[in-house]
Amino acid sequence: MSELRPDLAAIAAMIRPGARVLDVGCGDGALLEHLKTKNVDGRGIEISQANVNACVTSGLAVVQGDADTDLVDYPAQVFDAVILSQTIQATEKPKVVLDHLLRIGRRVAISLPNFGYWKVRLSLLSGGRMPRTSTLDYTWWATPNIHLCTLADFVDLTRECGATIVEAHALNDNGTTSKMNPASLTHGYLGPNLFAQGGVFLLKKS
Amino acid sequence: MTEAPRFLRPVTAPSADVGLAVTFQTPLQLDCGRALAPFTVAYMTYGTLNADKSNAILICHALTGDQFVASEHPITGKPGWWITMVGPGKPIDTDRFFVICANVLGGCMGSTGPAEIDPATGKPWGLNFPLVTIRDMVRAQKRLVEHLGITKLLAVVGGSMGGMQALQWAASYPESLRAVVPIACAARHSAQNIAFHEVGRQAIMADPDWKGGEYQLHNTRPSKGLAVARMAAHITYVSEMALQNKFGRNLQNRDAKSFQFTPDFQIESYLHHQGASFVDRFDANSYLYITRAMDYFDLAEEHGGHLSDVFRVNPARFCIVAFTSDWLFPPVENKRIAHALNAVAAQVSFVEIRSDKGHDAFLLDEPEMFATVRGFLNHAATDLS
Question: I want to staple A192 with a disulfide (CB 3.0 to 4.6 A). Which of A98, A196, B21, B351 is the partner?
């Protein structure tokens, strides 16, 4: 098995062994497959048929669907944790999606790119064009990322949704992760909102 | 033994051609309140049952299907109806799995149905045959599976009405199967589906040769009515786009419209052909009974409409397959099942396959469906060993 993406590894570390987990946008099932080693009872939602087939073939229980439209059909509090990795910025209604995640799972583990990352800021400032970075490598007119935000913006949204941040990790440039204090994201100009490429958060309903 | 009185069989199959058959003397208690005894289940098997009897897959056929899933049909001489899915090296691999397919109760290919002789009267059952349900069909299949000495099926697989039976299996006998593959189906028949079936039934019953259901006694067959029923139903099996692509407004064997009511358009003569070839192999009363069974199907009904409660604490794993252009059992109906299973945290996968072929896609060459079913069953079988 290939190594997990850093944000997925950080999310995996947040999941307790034996937990019942829903991975929304589970891709080819790499995280769910990894979580099997922790005896996690995993389920997935995935929009791409090819990915769903890959999951089904490897014995994962995955439903073809769309986070924007299908979460409404999931009952409340069935899962110990719901995972949304690198997807919230591509949803049509991020707040609605996050509200559903907080309803469906007792914990929500979420990773997202940071549009406040200094390279992104510098790219816009110096180039005068929509930034293209290694993690956000799309032209403005072809990007699936229609709702990009900074980590500070995201913290505001968690408050808006009535969520508490249980844990927060910065995704660093070099592929490492480091624990961060959520308060440091919304106070002052320096800190992870400027230096982190992305973030990983564990949330619960307040 | 005295020779039984002879009645014209609705189809021309000599009874020896229906494959294997087993007759049960213990009555089958039916949903309608009546009991059926004795009753026969005609079936076919493919592949070999392994020593611990853990490799059996039951395939449930659709409305007008039969037990000849992977071998030549005795009447039409056509290859098995799911030869693309079932056979050596196929997604449901008969080199590996022991495949069972039974003619449904109420059918006309050897299992007890309205065309068979009622032992109480010595005459064909006709409309005296009890109204059977999807659950009754499954009860009969369960008897067959037990008769074959199998306590736990590896999987139950079916499309359309066969998918309804697969769901019913999971609901009725969750401990008797490991995996369920309902394809292009629903947990209930919709108003639109019931409406189409009623049109078909009325066409049959309006045929003077139907004779109140006693056509066998009169040596007639309501072929015209049954053909119209088949024509109407066939429209629901294909998508608007598939019809348009295949036929458009093309004329059949003529350069100009005839200004008569003979079939001018290719689609008309295609439907006529569908109707005419169907009546050679299917019994009109069976068509009435089986369509009724589908109409009555509503899995959630006895759970106050809560589909999730049907599957509460279900150890089986499910793989639900839908086709985008299926308007008879649209993806949304298939997805309802997936959501109900999700709500009780059952192990469910759902795949929506892009196809322009409509409901019949499940019988056609759909590589994505094959890949899904193959992968799912392989994994279900591997987990076991």
Answer: A196
